[in-house]
Design a protein that fits this description.
It contains 19 helices and 9 strands. The protein is α/β, with parallel strands linked by helices. It is globular, with a radius of gyration of 24 Å.
Length: 480
Amino acid sequence: MTENPPLAGYYLAAAAGIFGWSEIALHFAFLLPALAVILGTHRLARRFCNQPVLAALATLFTPVFLVSSLTVMCDVTMLALWVWAVVFWVEGTKQDKLWKLFVAGLLIGLAEMTKYYGACLFPLLSVYSLINRRRLGRWAAFMLVPLVVLCVYQYVTQAVYGGSLLYRAMDYASFTKGFFGFSKTDIGLTALAFTGGCLAMATMFAPLLWRPRTLAALAVGAVAIAAILHFDEAIWKKYGVLHGTARTSVEIQTVVWATGGLCVLALAVADVWRRRDADSWLPALWVLGTFIFAAFVNWVVNGRSFLPMAPAVGILIARGLEQKVFPERKAWKRGAALCLTLGAALALLVARADCLMAVAVRKSAQEVCARCKPADGTLWFQGHWGFQFYMEAGGAHPFDIKHSSLKPWDNLALPANNTILQPNLNRMISRGTLFVPGPHLLTTWSQSTGAGFYASVWGPLPFAFGRVPPEGASVYVLKR
């Protein structure tokens, strides 16, 4: 089940129809939108700063972009359409070329059909155009294109499914936020930590971007965040497995990345304060709007929700450096190269850790399927994501609590690091648990280290350093 529109699914099916359903083919297909994001960021940055290559590299080497680009989810595809919609809209507005405005409107519609957040381009680009032109113009007519696309989608889904899929996604988001029960303070701190960690390049460039006075203010913010984390026990009740040294480690990392999140938001505000024109308002509203949505509107704080702000942050870093006066050009180049290298190294390590986790999940599913022979009875499993994909590929069946029924000698596999597990083990006997080593000192998904890139209910950090337990799966058999 997915709460997103179908365009990415159609793209996935088309790619599989041409190249097959192999992992290599599917991942290659989703690398093409990632390439489009970087090319689009470079083209857009040429109009907003004098260092478009730096802006593109700062976008590429962020943890959230590299990790998301290695998945087969819809987020990077939506971002590719988003960036190129902004490119054509900005160029069409400045050059007064109607065909570019039409292409931009069409791309906005396609972004909406990839992920509902694409609809946020409508208010973003409308405000940008009003600030730029000071009045409504012919450009406003082309905003009807994405509106028509969204209305047609609403009508079709209402007719086919008997209800609006968009409203259903909104209801799901509202329900889950209430179900998890995080306070606004908890959500705000977690969102700051995710912003700083996912867009870590802004933290790496902070010594070059900010004056000592601003850095001191950020240090004061770090102390305030540390105090809240230390004294607010309600935050840690949601993460019961974190205690002792593990909690201390997570607190320290949360302070670091939440301060980095403040740095990202300050970049957007500072650029508007210095320039106060349409070209400063666009990336600022882009960043601030994405933060508000990811923190307080989306169903849960997760790394992929902060992905849309990556190109804007890359452009803001390049624009911020242009405002600084360096003693000599060589010093600027050396400093920028060092910050970029540190950020790239971190992003590559995080992406590697996420890949190692995926490989470990695949191995655990394959070993479970190899151990449970057909003669032993039907092999069922609970869990989702990669574990589900590889278990079904191995011949196992997903267990539905309401409709599936176990028979004597049937087996049930339960992954250790997964979600929506609701086993009833009253009449079952354990056949043992197998463990597969994954990432060791850095991970994107582990409750014991506080890493919850894909959902902050798993942990308050997008990635975490620490001792990472191996991936595992337990197998049970129904005796009677």
